[in-house]
Amino acid sequence: MKIKFLPSLFYAFLLMLLLVGCSASNETEAQNDKQSEVTSEQEKDNDQESNKENKESSKENDEESYDDSDLIEAVETSPVYPEITFQNINWFWGSPDRQPTGGIWVYTSETIPSGYESTVDWETKDLLLVQVNDPKYIDHSMDFKALQKIDDDIVKIVVSLKQDDTKTDKEVARRYASVDKGELEGKKFLVETVEGDKVDVGLNVKTSEISGSEAE
Hints:
Layout (H helix, E strand, L loop, with lengths): L1 H64 L2 H6 L12 E4 L13 E5 L17 E8 L7 E12 L2 E10 L9 E8 L7 E6 L13 H5 L5
Parallel strand pairs: 5-7
Antiparallel strand pairs: 1-6, 2-3, 3-6, 4-5
């Protein structure tokens, strides 16, 4: 009777050995995986620390590369002013008469001078005129380059003034431009060249005294 059960016990014993072996193998693999993850995390931390040290070292080297003379020569950004949109006006079929003196004028629909009725759309635009009575700008062409709001009530007119060899009538430089209606209302003005030179419009100088011709 006992002999009959021996094979069964033997097979049961073998099965237990297999189960124990598999369990041990799985546990070993789990430990290996865990150890691998720990090692990977450590390597990652080491890499991050190394990168951080390299960046700090590079930053220190950059800072050391600038001496005091470099820092003294460092400049701040130039001021940026809001600008007023405008359009230079050219006269192809005869231009209006020149003003008797230099100055700055802003014409509106309420103050349209004679002969200017069709110059701009007076419902949406105003007309700006700058006339420069400075002897060094006789027979010069003038273009507006910018209308800059440098204060609540002050506009800087930046102009380009260039000798015009086609002009020989000894006339003073001037320029008209259209601007959106009301943009220049109540404003005071400065005139400056693109090179940064102040321009005197010559309010107290008659055009005839500058050009040598009779004022119209």
